[in-house]
Design a protein that fits this description.
The complex is a heterodimer of chains A (205) and B (401). Chain A contains five helices and six strands; from the N terminus they run H-H-E-H-E-E-E-E-E-H-H. Chain A has 205 residues and is of the alpha+beta class. In chain A, a hairpin with a 6-residue loop joins strand 2 and strand 3. The longest helix of chain A has 26 residues. Chain A is elongated. Helix content of chain B is 69%, strand content 0%. The relative contact order of chain B is 0.12. Chain B starts with a helix and ends with a helix. The longest helix of chain B has 42 residues. Classes of the chains: A alpha+beta (205), B mainly alpha (401).
Chain lengths: 205, 401
């Protein structure tokens, strides 16, 4: 007798479990898919949704690069190569070469921390796929440029002010997030911030 | 078919008339095979991937064409262009021949699929028997493929397929009988002719026994078509791709075409036997319009069956071999017997049928469907996906809220 009851139990159990399972799967027709259709079918680009401190591909603002070689020295795998020489005629420091090998870069962020002006900084770009290793070498300098020299009176060139402000903000938020209240004056927008009036080395630790 | 061709042929007589019939059958057969069967097998792959994806909260192929509809064409082109590799140790003639056997078994079944009152390639008087016999040829091809590949997984897959298909022939054939008994004929058109346009006039709702027969036939047909949850011959986790492991390019595509096209045959058979086939109310006397409506109804019903099969595939896990055999011999064969003899007994006891029983069965099915709707509503309202970020430490709880 127990064989018959267990047989019937098996039949009813399988029918009801299939019924239950079908109802669960059917309910998914009324739910939205979770899929994110990266990269082309998104409401906003992924890069724009990332935080400011995201460690993406490196970028250099040559307008405010002081040619101090702090980043080159900080890089543990030597993917940054800078060649800066003093021009004897004008007495200015000229940057002849600024190469970053992004194929080597491990996105540690050590180079952007000691930068006094926030010239070398991470962006939110991360799509670095390319067809050759050679094209991962970013050469920032075609013709030698003069290094940026902080002015004692504060920056007054309207083209450089926004770049500098961005760099200082990056330094504040990226390089020394814990020391934010102390360095608040540095990055407040509107004020002419100048690396000459602050101690560039204070935040490097 | 003949009556429809008569209206088209007018008053041609003798040999001309016979040639006209022949031409009509050949043309319609060619239209069915090339214009419907082969594209259908492709389109089902797209539909299956889309439906499956939605059930799993994904999107599925949506890049090629509108809603990704042309994905099957892209896949087809890719498969045609792929290299056709025959293993050196394979039994070459058998290996090359096997996909065609499978395709023949599958396409030959379309001879007896009644798309409408007139559109059927040949209305054989042993129609349903013919379809059962011809679809069994597939197993020969699968076994050939498994053997000739000279690969243990292929052989295991082929033997599993043979075991499974031959075993499930029995409940499938038994479950056909209630419909045949109720119609008193094996002809496809005859079976449909005994049913009506209204749902409760279908064979499915004749009695609880017929309803049981419907369920058993559907399940057994799934198993015969090697569909999940009975896709043991191609169990990826165990057998790579089963009997199709060594096949590449167009040859493997032929296997999969047969497999997906088989879905439609299962749907059409279920529709013919139990779901009233192409029956529509007589709303016009124009034969062309009438046939169009019938084709629409038949397609609608069989596509609903195909959808159900895809949905089942996304729901149920694969059964084990011993479970498969136990299901067949311990459960489905006795139940199929019960269905056949119950229907026969009812037909003897109530020669004119019982309208009350019919409506009661129909009401039960409607009740199950309503219960199902409430169940789905429950899952939508109550059962939500777990947000794992809220389950971790208190600190992250504070952050996420």
């Amino acid at each position: 007798m127990s064989a018959v009851t267990s047989w019937l139990e098996n039949v009813t159990a399988s029918c009801s479990s299939v019924f239950e399972g079908l109802s669960i799967t059917f309910s998914h027709f009324f739910r939205k898919p979770y899929t994110v259709e990266y990269p082309d079918r998104m409401e906003t680009r992924v890069q724009d949704t990332l935080p400011f401190r995201y460690r993406g591909m490196l970028e250099v603002d040559l307008e405010i690069c002081t040619g101090c070689l702090a980043c080159e020295r900080a890089c543990p795998i030597e993917c940054i190569v800078i060649d800066a020489t003093k021009d004897k005629a004008t007495g200015k420091l000229m940057i002849n070469r600024f190469d970053i090998d992004l194929a080597k870069c491990m996105y540690c962020g050590l180079c952007s921390e000691p930068c006094p002006t926030g010239s070398i900084h991470h962006t939110r770009e991360f799509e670095g796929s390319d067809y050759s290793l050679e094209s991962m070498m970013r050469r920032y300098i075609k013709f030698p440029v003069a290094a940026y020299k902080p002015k004692k009176t504060g920056e007054d060139d309207p083209e450089i002010i926004p770049v500098l402000e961005r760099g200082m903000r990056f330094l504040d938020e990226f390089a020394q997030p814990a020391a934010k209240p102390a360095s608040g004056t540095k990055s407040s927008p509107g004020t002419k911030s100048s690396p000459g009036t602050t101690d560039p080395g204070s935040g490097t630790g | 078919m003949q009556a429809f061709l008569d209206t088209l042929l007018g008053d041609a007589a003798g040999l001309e008339r016979q040639l006209g019939y022949l031409a009509g059958m050949v043309v319609f057969g060619a239209v069915v095979v090339f214009g419907f069967v082969l594209p259908f097998a492709g389109i089902v792959t797209w539909a299956e991937r889309r439906i499956w994806a939605r059930i799993q909260s994904r999107v599925g192929p949506n890049r090629v064409g509108p809603f990704g509809f042309l994905q099957w064409l892209a896949d087809g082109v890719k498969n045609i262009l792929k290299e056709d590799i025959i293993p050196t140790v394979a039994d070459r003639p058998l290996f090359r021949f096997a996909p065609y056997v499978v395709m023949v078994g599958f396409i030959a079944a379309f001879v007896c699929i009644p798309f409408s009152g007139d559109l059927i390639i040949a209305d054989l008087n042993i129609g349903i028997l013919y379809v059962t016999a011809v679809t069994s040829v597939v197993v020969v091809g699968i076994l050939m493929a498994g053997w000739s590949s000279n690969n243990r997984w292929s052989l295991l897959g082929g033997i599993r397929a043979a075991t499974q298909i031959i075993s499930y022939e029995i409940p499938a054939s038994l479950a056909i009988f209630p419909a045949v008994l109720l119609s008193g004929t094996l002809s496809m058109q005859g079976i449909i002719g005994e049913q009506g346009a209204a749902p409760w006039q279908w064979h499915m709702f004749h009695s609880p026994f017929a309803l049981l027969g419907f369920g058993l036939f559907f399940t057994a047909a799934l198993a015969e078509g090697n569909r999940t949850p009975f896709d043991l011959p191609e169990a990826e986790s165990e057998l790579v791709a089963g009997f199709a492991t060594e096949y590449s390019g167009m040859r493997s595509t032929l296997f999969f075409m047969a497999e997906w096209g088989n879905l439609y045959i299962i749907g059409a058979l279920v529709t013919t036997l139990y779901l009233g086939g192409w029956q529509v109310p007589q709303f016009t006397y124009n034969p062309v319009l009438m046939n169009l409506a019938q084709v629409g109804v038949f397609m609608g019903k069989s596509f609903a069956c195909v959808f159900f099969m895809i949905w089942l595939r996304a729901t149920l896990p694969r059964v084990r071999v011993d479970q498969l055999m136990a299901l067949c011999w311990k459960y489905m064969v006795p139940l199929a017997m019960l269905s056949v003899f119950g229907t026969a007994t009812l037909m003897v006891a109530l020669p004119n049928g019982s309208h009350t029983l019919r409506m009661a069965t129909f009401a039960v099915v409607v009740g199950v469907v309503i219960r199902f709707a409430f169940k789905v509503r429950f899952h939508l309202k109550r059962a939500r996906a777990l947000d794992y970020s809220s389950l971790s430490t208190g600190a992250s709880q504070g952050l996420s809220s």
